[in-house]
Amino acid sequence: ANKRLVYEEVKKSIERDRSLVRISELSRNGLMEITRKRVRPSVTFMITEPCPCCHATGRVEALETSFSKIEQQICRILATMDRNGEPQNPKSWPKFILRVDHDMCEYLTSGKKTKLGILSSSLKVWILLKVARGFTRGSFEIKPYTDDKVDKNQQQQGAISKASTKRIASIYTLLSEKIKG
């Protein structure tokens, strides 16, 4: 009898609530289950905004995935280009400027056999790597490089660390020697 009274009192007090509320009767152990549908967003949701890097998924693209996309993009550009010269002659290979975020630059240039060197030799292209400030992880830009002077705005936007420049120069030297000999 008391269980029924408790249930009725809780039910009366919930009638004033605007949101959907479900109540179960008291169990043998004296427990009552009450569920309430949330009417408005959580405080955390109201005071935060989506992450610009992961687009609010909580995950970012793996570097390997970004690397594959870079390779595919270069292949697409190569397919549209008129390739003059001999593939055996590295001096005739097409040149590209690749702008990436700092993490991707580290990924491409780390280790003895760098991913950049392997990509360059397998596709028979030269790739000038630039770290682009403000690029989020997974963002990149590939442009064919022309021997004309590069636009001053592009030079200001992208910056290559001195260590990366030396590393890239040594990679190009090694690749040239490997191909010749």
From TrEMBL:
Superkingdom in the source lineage: Eukaryota
Domain spans labelled RNA-binding protein AU-1/Ribonuclease E/G: 2-39
Protein name, entry field: RNase E/G-like protein
InterPro entries to which the protein is assigned, alphabetical: RNA-bd_AU-1/RNase_E/G (IPR019307), RNase_E/G (IPR004659)
GO aspect biological process, one term: rRNA processing
GO cellular component annotations of the record: cytoplasm
Single Gene Ontology MF annotation: RNA nuclease activity
Protein species of origin: Trifolium pratense (Red clover)
Cofactors that this protein relies on: Mg(2+)
Pfam families registered for this protein in UniProt: RNase_E_G
Biological function: Involved in intercistronic processing of primary transcripts from chloroplast operons. The endonucleolytic activity of the enzyme depends on the number of phosphates at the 5' end, is inhibited by structured RNA, and preferentially cleaves A/U-rich sequences.
Family per record: Belongs to the RNase E/G family.
Keywords assigned by UniProt, alphabetized: Endonuclease, Hydrolase, Magnesium, Metal-binding, Nuclease, RNA-binding
